[in-house]
Predict the structure.
Amino acid sequence: MRTIRCFVIATAGACVALTHPIALAQSAGYPNKLIKIVVPFPPGGATDIMTRNIAQKLGEAWKQPVIVENRPGASGMIGADAVAKSQADGYTYLAATIIHSANVSLFPKAPYQLQKDLQPVAILGLIPLVPVVRADSPIRSLQDLLVTSKSKNLNAGSGGNGTAAHLGLELYKSATGAKIQHIPYKGGAPAMTDLLGGQIDVIFALLPECLPHVKSGKLRALAVTSDKRHPLLPDVPTTSEAGIPGIEVTSWNGLMVPSGTPRDIVLKINAEVTRIADTPDMRARIIEQGFQPVAMSVSDTENFEKADVERWAKVIRDAGIKAD
C-alpha cells in the first residue's frame, strides 16, 4: 500500500509539473487554425469597420484565416454571450465596445457576466460622438435641438440600448431637459440608414459611422463630444463650445476572449494587434476613418475596462437611464 501511495503521489506531481510546459507548447504554436472575431452588430457600423481593419492584417501576419462573423441583437449581448460560452483556446474573439460596459448596469440579468466570463485583450481605438441631423433639417445647433424638442416630437436613433449613441443622447437629455424619444436599432448602420431616409431626426453618432455623410453634405454635424475639436471636423464645435458642457463621451472598440484563455495567448494577441495598429498604413487608415489609435498592454486594458464599467454604472444610476 505504501508503494502504491507513493506511486500515486509521484504521478500526480509529474502531471502538475507537465501542465505548464504543455500549455506553453500549445501557445507557442498559436495560431494554427482559423480565428473568428464576433461583431455583435450588423455590418457597416464603426465596430464592424475597425474589426475588419484588424482582421485582415492579423490574417496576413499569422498566415491563418481570420473571419468576421456579425451576430447582432439584444444590445450586443447575443454576440458577447456566444463568445463567453466558446472554448477558451484563443480562437474566438469578441469585438467589444462601450455597450458591454454599460450593459453590466442596464442588464444585470444578462446571460453572461462581463467581468467573470470575458477577458479583456486590447483596445483598438477611441471614438468621439457627433450629434447629426439631415442637411435639410432646420436644426443647426444643440441649442436648436433643445428648443425644437420642446415644441415637436423628435426621435433619436442608436445602435441599441447601452450603445454610445444611446448614452450620449441620455446625457444630453439629462443635462438640458430635452424631450427626445429614443429608438434603438440592432446597430449603428441601420439607424444611420433611417436618419438619411427621414424616419428619425437625430443620432448621437459614432464619428466613423457619420463622417462620410457629413463630408458628402448629406448630414449636418452639430458638435463633437470630445474635449477639443476633431481634426477631421475642424469647423464643428465641441459640446462645451456649443453651450452644453458635461456631456463629453468617448466610445471605444476592443477585443475580448473567453475567460480562462491561456495568459500567454492573450499577451500574444495584444502584442500583434498593437503592432498592427502602429504600422504607418494602418495608423493612417484608422485616423482617416475617425478613430483615435491607442496602445494599451493587457493590464492597462483590464484596468480601462474595469474603470469604464464603474463610470457608466454611476452615469446610468445618476441619470436614471433605463433600457427601453
